[in-house]
Amino acid sequence: MKYYILFGPPGAGKGTQAAPMAQRFNLRHISTGALLRAEIAAGTALGKEAAVLIEKGCLVPDEVVEGMIESAFNAEKEAVGFILDGFPRTVSQARDLDALLARRGESLTAVVSLIIPDSVVKERIAGRAAIEGRADDAKPEVIENRIRTYHEKTEPLIAYYKETGKYHEVPAEGTIEEVGARINELVDRF
Ligand code: AMP
């Protein structure tokens, strides 16, 4: 199995790029944010707990997202691999992912890191708010908190993955097609 992490700040285009990437390479797209939003929409206990944190732009507990990732891995029968979008988001999630993959006799294939400045991130999230109607995209203070959380908790993963030699950067400015072509070129190599 192939295991790709699509990495980057909120608004970098991870969800947008994961869909065509999944189709092209027969990978299953797992977005922890989308799975959490589905729990919220279904009104589950997990969804209610997560909603409070997501609405503030905070992270949900590691064990919650890790449980969802493991179930998604176990449920897959057809694809040749996975694209993880929005996971891992902390160094402890990354360590737990390594351990989970090792237990399955697998390892990470590559980290595809979308590089984009904060100013463009803010523009993209504002644009997406109008289209997708996500509550956490609508409030400036929540967007600020998500960007701050990214820098504090998620950005340290770059150093973590650079050490593994599996970390690859892709400039994420430009059209969806331009960025997609850069990603395809990279994924073709692994
Ligand atoms: P996203 O759709 O990836 O932007 O995620 C939306 C929100 O879901 C985030 O702001 C977090 O509150 C929560 N979330 C998604 N993935 C994770 C994760 N791996 N760890 C903790 N919280 C997460």
Write a brief caption for the model.
The chain is of the alpha/beta class.
Shape: globular
Run of helices and strands: EHEHHHEHEHHHHEH
Mean pLDDT: 94
Strand order of the largest sheet: 2-3-1-4-5
Strand content: 5-15%
Please state the oligomeric state of the protein chains shown: single chain
Account of the 3D structure:
By secondary structure, the protein is α/β, with parallel strands linked by helices. It contains ten helices and five strands. It has helices spanning 14-25, 32-42, 45-56, 62-75, 91-103, 118-132, 135-138, 140-154, 156-162, 176-187; strands at 2-7, 27-31, 81-85, 110-115, 167-171. It has a five-stranded parallel β-sheet with strand order 2-3-1-4-5, sandwiched between helices. Helix 1 packs across helix 10 and helix 2 packs across helix 3 (45-56). The chain is globular and about 40 Å long. The structure holds adenosine monophosphate. Residues 10, 32-33, 36, 53-54, 57-60, 65, 86-87, 89, 93, 136, 146 line the site of adenosine monophosphate.
Core attributes:
190 residues, alpha/beta, 5-stranded parallel sheet, 10 helices, 5 strands, binds adenosine monophosphate
Layout of SSEs?
Layout: E1 2-7, H1 14-25, E2 27-31, H2 32-42, H3 45-56, H4 62-75, E3 81-85, H5 91-103, E4 110-115, H6 118-132, H7 135-138, H8 140-154, H9 156-162, E5 167-171, H10 176-187
Parallel strand pairs: 1-3, 1-4, 2-3, 4-5
This protein binds adenosine monophosphate.
Residues 10, 32-33, 36, 53-54, 57-60, 65, 86-87, 89, 93, 136, 146 line the site of adenosine monophosphate (AMP).
